[in-house]
Design goal:
6 strands, 5% strand, two-stranded parallel sheet, 384 residues, mainly alpha, Fumarase C, Chain A, domain 2
Amino acid sequence: MIPRYKVKEVHDIWSTDNKLNTWLKVEMAHLDALSNSITHKTITKEELSIVKSHIKVDKKRWKEIEEETRHDVQAFVQMLEESIPDSSGRWIHYGLTSSDILDTSLVLMCKESLQTIVDYASGTCYHLNKLMKLESASHEILARTHGKAAEVQSYYNVYRRWIRGLRRGLDAVVEAKKKMNFGKMSGPVGNYTTNSPGIESNALRSLGLYPTVCSQIIPRDMFLDYFYAILKVMLAVEKIAYDIRIYSMDGINEMSEPFRKGQKGSSAMPHKKNPVLTENICGLSRLYKSYMQTAIENCQTLLERDISHSCTERIIFKDAAHIACYTLSKLTYIFKDMNINTDFAQKNVDNFRNKVSSQNNMNDLIKKGVSRTNAHNITQKEDN
């Protein structure tokens, strides 16, 4: 993600340091399972103790080896083995393929990202809920359908719809985090050439995960829950941003995003106060939707696998979390100091008072015995 839209918590999750530490966590879970295996006589408890005492990640050395091997996981395994003072390091990565480490680690980092989104979305809901408790929330504001005055509602009714959308997104993210409980340690094509299903199961269980049927990679449709959950958040955020943009238009002026002292809207037109935050939110939501298409296309790979998916995944997984958290943070900022113009809202309601009461007028005629069709026609003529 470019620095402008980067979120520190998300950056830390997808940083090289955390990635390598997560790879190490997965490798060690596998070694623990190997040492506890009754059927596979490989690494002994003594050897495992030596590995645990000395193993370490040396990012500089890893980069040096990768420059030569052009293979990140092989470089990682070699770097780890070099850190062990005796031959105990030979058991690192035993029976595994790169995707056993990469895909299992990817799941763990996705779960971290989803939790971060939960934290950000919870904060946004908190500040929107504070808006709902303000005195201004009870004031009248026009409801519009097809861009035309429809009926009278309250600010509270607007906020209620917004927070419901956000909470649906929040619920989807929480559920996706629960569903992303799968991993893989079944070897080069998922057929347990060296490892056993028992070793895989025990290793993954220690990571809070469970095995799934795989080829060389975890099926990519299993990662769609991650993207669909974030999509629900983005749709809710985008809806709110679009609404605020409309409410802030000249001639409506019912609410608007904060405009700080000294902020400028235009280099040519000094009077302008442009809704740049909500416009950015809508633009980033548009970008996120393109990631959805890529995630769907990634579900198709050749036979047991190719790497057509991996080059895009280096971008879309982390950037999806960046976009979600960045837009949520901007929405939170807006809710903290949003301009609520109840005077303009009341003027707009008063200007359309006769029109927006048409349903009540029609119902009054129906109660007096007029047929619904005639009541509708009479009210329509009166309003025109």
